[in-house]
Write a structure and sequence with these properties.
Helix content is 22%, strand content 23%. It contains five helices and 15 strands. It binds flavin-adenine dinucleotide and NADP nicotinamide-adenine-dinucleotide phosphate (NAP).
């Protein structure tokens, strides 16, 4: 298993030397594919590339797999109450089902455990350089790519390796966007982005305005309604909200379609759902 201390040292047998366009030394990794990120997308990319005979070097800036679901890392956007919104059969990899004993919409800690077991089951960790951040990807001669890495946090030297292809699986929930509103600087209360929300205790006894009605905004508004002394929820447009269950069944699109029978079952539930949807 690779660790943060052996990052950036690919298998020497598959490596030869080259130079970047500005003369920096480059390890030429031949036909190896570089995967950036070991979340859900990166893990399944490693597995499938390996199954099709490719060599793979995956770089992961954190010290474990799971990406957004790895609540052990400070950057993880999940909060204590996060559960899957997409149902178990709709979310799991078809060749690695989640346990039957798990709920229809598992807790985030179960998701992390699922991705860890997926990595172990398909022996993916030996292809991952943990604690290693990709800081540059540049085109190189012959339609190839120079990938520059360094230890997460900026310690140690930069290393550049040349790959036949790069698969970017770095996720899209890592950079908080805090809108600027006119007059905001006059507000004397606390302003928090959802990325730093972890636990409803943070809201206890406060007067809370939740801005935004994506899944995060809705979850936090529900918890604020229970914990805060007063809660307002602001959205700039209308949304459709669908329950996770309709008449005791997972909502349509949340069940694995089992051929024609699945499609018929979906249609049977879809009709009453139209009536059950609540526009707020
Ligand atoms: C609170 C929350 C709940 C969600 N619920 C659901 C749900 O119910 N169902 C669903 O399908 N989706 C859900 N999602 C969407 C979520 O994005 C996906 O489930 C999944 O995590 C996406 O996986 P990914 O591998 O594409 O990205 P990520 O999980 O974000 O993984 C990206 C990985 O790339 C690494 N990385 C990033 N930049 C670099 C770099 N420069 N160098 C090296 N490594 C890097 C990161 O450390 C991370 O490990 C939810 C998201 C959030 C935030
Ligand atoms: N499994 C779960 O339970 C769960 C929980 C949380 C998040 N998630 C997932 O995580 C991802 C991110 O979800 P998210 O809710 O954090 O983000 P999001 O879906 O992008 O929602 C952002 C919300 O903020 C609003 N907004 C953005 N800029 C604004 C501005 N300047 N002024 C006012 N409102 C503004 C948006 O309005 P507009 O819609 O008008 O742009 C939207 O309501 C999604 O994939 C989501 O499904 C899942």
């Amino acid at each position: 298993m690779s660790t943060s201390t052996d990052h950036g040292r690919p298998d020497p047998e598959a490596t030869s030397s080259a130079a970047s366009r500005d003369g920096r030394p480059v390890s030429d990794r031949g036909d190896t594919v570089c995967v950036i990120g070991a979340g859900a997308s990166g893990l399944t990319a490693i597995k499938n590339l390996r199954e099709h005979g490719f060599g793979v070097d995956c770089y992961e800036r954190e010290t474990g797999v799971g990406g957004a679901w790895n609540w052990r890392h400070d950057r993880s956007p999940v909060y204590a109450s996060t559960h899957l919104l997409s149902s178990k059969p709709f979310t799991q990899f078809p060749d690695f089902p989640m346990p039957d004993s798990w709920p229809d919409y598992p807790h985030h800690s179960q998701l992390l455990s699922y991705f860890e077991r997926y990595a172990d089951h398909f022996d993916l960790r030996s292809h991952i350089w943990f604690g290693t951040e990709v800081i540059r990807v540049e085109p190189a001669e012959g339609d190839r790519w120079d990938v520059t890495t360094r230890s997460t946090g900026g310690y140690g030297p930069e290393r550049t390796s040349r790959y036949a292809a790069v698969l970017i699986a770095n996720g899209h929930n890592w950079s908080p966007k805090l809108p600027r509103y006119e007059g905001l600087e006059q507000f004397r209360g606390e302003i928090m982005h959802a990325s730093s929300y972890k636990d409803p205790a943070q809201l206890r006894g406060k007067r809370v305005l939740v801005v935004g009605a994506g899944n995060t905004g809705c979850d936090i508004a529900v918890e604020a309604a229970q914990q805060a002394s007063r809660c307002w929820h602001s959205s700039r447009r209308g949304y459709w909200y669908a329950p996770k269950y309709v008449f005791g069944r997972r909502r349509p699109g949340q069940r694995r379609a089992a051929g024609a029978a699945g499609a018929v079952a979906d249609a049977a539930v879809a009709l009453p759902l139209d009536a059950a949807v609540d526009r707020r």
